[in-house]
Amino acid sequence: MSTRKDKFSFKDNFYMELALDLARAREGHTGTNPSVGCVIVKNDEIISIGQTTYNGRPHAELNAIKNAYEDLKGAKMYVTLEPCSHYGLTPPCTNAIINSKFDEVIYSVIDIDQRVKGKTFKILKSKKIKVRKGLLKDKVKKFYLPYFYNRKKKLPYVVGKVAVSKNNLIYSKNNKKITNSKSDKFTHYLRYKNDSILISYKTLNKDNPKLNCRLKNKEKFSPIRIVLDNKLKTNTKSYLFKTSKKYNTIFFYNEAINSKILEFKKKKIELIKSKINSNKKFELSLILKKLYNLGCRNILVEGGNELTKSFLIKKMFNHFYLFKSPKKLAKLKDYKEFNGFNILKQNYKTRLKINSNFGKDTVTLYKK
Predict the structure, then answer these.
(1) Residue 234 pLDDT
(2) Nearest-angstrom CA–CA distance, 27 and 36
(3) In the chain, how long is the greatest CA-to-CA distance?
């Protein structure tokens, strides 16, 4: 029986590290399922690897079993998350593991899904398969924090990001570019790792953003575009509106004339009517619940001052990145200053300054 006394070898650690790397590579791209990595070893040689398929199925274990180049009888499986043991849209991974006659299965952390949680151990042990768990547990648990949050709260994991100049401007009409190319590249990495991106119509109309991932060979992983627009005041000449037939685009609104609604629907935009509060603002908690039900699991908020402050005040960011440029921007007629610093420091106690890889820009990561 697996206990805390289980001792793992250097090779065990190496194989699980590889499985974790495989899981990380698919993070943000496995739909409503967690990203899992799997390594199969026989006679101290890796004979197969597997990852959760894009959009979630088949699972990593099934892919690894299918990819194996030799008989799996007597082999050992390393997997980051407890293999599933229930019937869903596909048969359980435990069936394939048993049928392949594995000698041993080592998984790092127990799945939080109640259909699976703790059941795999008993199922595999009953078939005379050796089972151990807890290998690299702390490191792998950290990786699955967003997934655990999704399952517990039934909400997306929300990452915020804002860029400010040396004099704390978030927007300046004659100089929209605040951060350098290295910071911009990290922003595109965040877009790559999140399945959805959220802004307000004010940001859309001011900046005319593309909201896509422009990292080389990663363009197809651009996030779903989500806009909060109470009365559908979005500029119909904007890039987002013009390209909505090509890219998944969702608009939340509260009231609009029928002709405007039809204009948006003709562009294949998904319109969702949502409640507003007494301050004429959307109830963000309802927005997040709806997005979770639509399959969004990791959301990046690239809002302006108002939207960012609303998320900060309600502590809705799980992580928040503050980019600061050494550039001082002119306070011309049309400019916007970020004034959420006090709320940020009050509500997000953990701060990690990231100085490397961003040139003269600085990036601070805030956590709850």
Answers:
(1) 98
(2) 9
(3) 74
Contact 253/273 with Cβ under 8 angstroms? yes
User: How far from 366 is each of 67, 133, 149, 251, CA to CA, in Å?
Assistant: 40, 31, 17, 28
Per the CB < 8 A criterion, the answer to whether 81 and 57 are in contact is no
Q: Phi, psi at residue 262, to the nearest 5°?
A: -65, -40
* Segment 14-51, tens digit of pLDDT: 999 999 999 999 999 999 999 999 999 999 999 999 99
Mean pLDDT over residues 79-104, rounded? Answer: 93
Q: Which amino acid is at 261?
A: I
- The yes-or-no answer on residue 61 being catalytic is yes
Contact 227, 201 (CB under 8 A): yes
Where does residue 345 rank: exposed (0-12), middle (13-18), buried (19+ CB within 10 A)? exposed
Contact 59, 93 (CB under 8 A): yes
Number of residues that make up the chain: 368
Terminal Cα distance for the chain, rounded: 37
- Give the C-alpha separation, 238 to 287, whole Å: 23
Alpha carbons 271 and 332: distance in angstroms, whole number: 36
- Which of 61, 219, 255, 337 does the annotation list as catalytic? 61
